[in-house]
Amino acid sequence: MEQRAVYDVVVVGAGDPAVEATLLLSSIAQMVYAVTRGRELHEDEALLERLRAKQNVETIGVSRVAEIRGEQVVESLVLEDVETKQRKELRVDGVFVEMGYVVKTGFVKGFVDLNEAGEVVTGKDCGTSRPGIFAAGDVTDIPYKQAVISAGQGATAGLSAYNYVQRLRGKPAVRTDWKTKRIR
After folding, report:
1. pLDDT per residue over 3-43, tens digit each?
2. Hey, what domains does the chain have and what are their CATH numbers?
3. Rounded Cα distance, 150 and 2, in Å
């Protein structure tokens, strides 16, 4: 039998990312509060229906986070109604911020290939559809928009750009394959 964690958490945000995070956390946490500045989360209706069906989710609209309290760990959250300025404290064990993002790649539109979401299409070396142009991070079509992934992708793009310039100069590139040697 699956055992549920005994944690109450808050997702602060807007859009599909906040709804998706709330849905994910609702299968793990005891209670999930979805806090948004608007009256409700206005997103994909199918996602909202799934969210409304959850017994352990409460949406708190027209609110903002005024304060996060706790010494060593999160203990509570103070919410402020954006209209009345009335405050209330909510006992929680964790806070997740999911604001989403907007890809701003209009300046490269028509210069490199973009997908339907406006993200730069890249290969495994972070190269784009235009030779010598490399892209990394959240503007690319890679899944999992996380800082650690973007950092790794930045290193890949940097090395790939260096190798591209080295090849143009007729010089050796940085080794891209690691060979192991057996030590006896």
Report:
1. 555 799 999 998 888 888 999 999 999 999 999 988 776 66
2. 8-98 (3.50.50.60), 106-168 (3.50.50.60)
3. 34
Contacts of 84 (CB under 8 A, 6+ apart): none
Distance set, CA 20 to CA 93, 95, 110, 156 (Å)? 19, 15, 32, 29
The rounded Cα 100 to chain-centroid distance in angstroms is 7
Phi, psi angle pair for 82, to nearest 5°? -70, -20
Helix, strand, coil in percent for the chain, rounding step 5:
25, 25, 50
Distances (CA, A) of 69 to 34, 75, 85: 18, 6, 19
Residue-wise DSSP of 158-178: HHHHHHHHHHHTT-PPPP---
Measured distance CA(121)–CA(108) in Å, rounded:
11
Other C-beta atoms closer than 10 Å to the C-beta of 82 total 12
d(CA 102, CA 118): 9
State pLDDT tens for residues 76-123.
Answer: 999 999 999 999 999 999 999 987 777 899 999 999 999 999 999 999
